[in-house]
């Protein structure tokens, strides 16, 4: 109990220390059921206890007066919109009669809220790209801490929780929720994770939420790089597949060319055989012409016409015989050229085979790199 004579000292002490209490504090003096004095720190006040207002007859202050002893009570959020601890001490006059109460109102802070100013500055700087740590009650943001690298000006203390906010969904579902978004606002995505905080005495009652927002610039950049790389590799792969198809076609054409060259060589050899046959016919014809000339000479004047024919046969034989070397020479030249072409065709055929094999190997490597790009993209999503 507090003596009336000490009341002014209590008021002075309350006004002196009130602004030093973390989370805020409020003091009230009631006479009977009427508030006659009130002091509250800047961060905390209750409109229900303005000077001149009446307190409830079954409330903490009237219970302290009736029972003539100090009464402490935990007040749920449903009464004043936030959880409170109210301590009411009876005030007695010089005759020890109780005529009022000196009451202390303390917001009941969740342990996370009580420690927020200690851990949040450290935690916010532990992310490579920075972060914003915030805490809400059931209606608004009550604490926030931004890192030096990253901040969100649109999320100040006092920001009302909107229905689409992650915190609102966490409070509604009572479950942790993570959501990636924000590229339309910040130009890059952010990851926001929010956790429910429950009443220490009632584990089923959610009283607040704790959120962390971290930028994902690196992850977004990795996604762009992997996407561009994947697109580029896909284009290269398509081009190489087309090249491989052309190389296969070239290989097939080279095989056909090589076969045709072999046939030409065979035909050249047949021409040589024909040339040999022509030479043999020319030799036989020459011999027949010579024999005919001898017989014409024996016949005298009557065989002169036959001699002229025999002479022409010999001339024709000589001409046929003289063309045979030329035919053989041309045939040999053709054969040599064809052999050279055949060698080049074989070399080209071998090169096309190696090109096709190398193309297949490059295609396989690009497919492997493309798969790695896909894995890189998936990894970027987890950052």
TrEMBL record:
InterPro entries: MCPsignal_dom (IPR004089)
Cellular component, GO, one term: membrane
Protein's name in the database: Methyl-accepting chemotaxis protein
Organism, as annotated: Dehalobacter restrictus
Stretches assigned to the Methyl-accepting transducer domain: 239-383
Biological process (GO), any one: signal transduction
Key words, A-Z: Transducer
